[in-house]
From TrEMBL:
Signal peptide: none annotated. The keyword Membrane applies. This is Type II secretory pathway pseudopilin PulG. Keywords: Membrane, Transmembrane, Transmembrane helix. It holds the Pfam family N_methyl. The chain crosses the membrane at residues 25-49. NCBIfam families: IV_pilin_GFxxxE (TIGR02532). The keyword Cell membrane does not apply. InterPro entries: N_methyl_site (IPR012902), Pilin-like (IPR045584).
Length: 287
């Protein structure tokens, strides 16, 4: 009777197998799988995230290099057209200020009358109101321009365009590509050995302020005998670069006809990435 009941009941064992048939998994097995998967994800994430992080760092460095290079190229372009002997550099209050006078054009003035006695020469013995240009300028002088003759220094004494003894505002309405009319009678202190003159605009200053993190360009504050360095003196400026961490600007004025050299090292920093670029610019010393 007992044997019949056993045969009639359900059996969960495979034929000839000592082990019972199992389905699903235990709680311990599930926990082990979760732990192993978590460890696998943690290990693999290091290899997955790192390339993306490296790409972001590389992109940030490239953007910083591009920003620094653009600012230095702008400064270089303007410095190469600076009036000879007009560059001056000063540091104050953690800021470094580079100032120069940009030239617009230039030529040679008439120093002697033509063979038939005609022409308007530039008189250095007394005040004069204008002179002929030997060879036409590319275009007539514009409003706000000034003529400078034989600029020798930027730090005092005679022959200093900042002090205005060798600089005179131009009367744009009365001038042309072949004649320069002065806004008022002026006597220039020195004649140029090569009869050269330059047409200039108002001074330009670049202010590097690592504390504020910006490099700014200023113009329109006018000619000043002493170099302006404060925000009050320079007024508002245009941003040339952001994320400025430091800068080193030096000027070697050279001697005689040897070109001066402006050295600019600009450092930009963002999110732990820092780039430093060095630019050297030759500036003319021959007035």
């Amino acid at each position: 009777m007992t044997r019949g009941k056993r045969e009639a009941g359900l059996s969960f064992a495979l034929p000839n197998s000592p082990f019972p048939l199992q389905s699903g998994f235990t709680l311990i097995e599930m926990i082990m799988v979760i732990v192993l998967l978590g460890a696998l994800v943690a290990v693999s994430s290091v290899f997955i995230v790192q390339p993306f992080r490296a790409f972001d760092d590389m992109k940030r460095r490239a953007e910083l290099v591009e920003a620094a290079d653009s600012a230095l190229m702008l400064m270089t372009r303007e410095l190469r057209a600076a009036l000879p002997n007009s560059v001056r550099v000063q540091s104050a209050g953690g800021r470094t200020v580079l100032e120069f006078i940009p030239t617009l054009s230039g030529g040679r003035y008439r120093a002697t009358l033509a063979g038939d006695g005609s022409g308007d020469i530039l008189d250095f013995g007394s005040t004069d109101t204008g002179f002929d240009v030997m060879g036409p300028l590319p275009s007539a002088p514009g409003p706000g321009s000034a003529v400078v003759i034989y600029n020798l220094t930027a730090v005092g004494g005679q022959g200093n365009a900042y002090a205005s003894d060798n600089r005179a505002p131009v009367d744009a309405a009365g001038s042309s590509s072949t004649y320069i009319a002065l806004a008022a009678a002026h006597r220039f202190p020195f004649a140029s050995p090569a009869q050269r003159f330059q047409l200039v605009s108002s001074p330009v200053s670049y202010v590097c302020d690592p504390v504020a993190g910006v490099l700014t360009r200023h113009q329109g504050y006018g000619f000043q005998s002493s170099q302006p360095v404060s925000s009050t003196e320079l007024g508002a400026g245009d941003t040339a670069a952001r994320f400025v961490a430091g800068c080193d600007i030096r000027f070697d004025p050279g001697a005689g006809t040897r070109n001066g050299l402006v050295s600019i090292r600009l450092s930009l920093s963002e999110a732990g990435e820092t780039v430093s670029l060095l630019q050297q610019v030759h500036v003319l010393n021959t007035p």
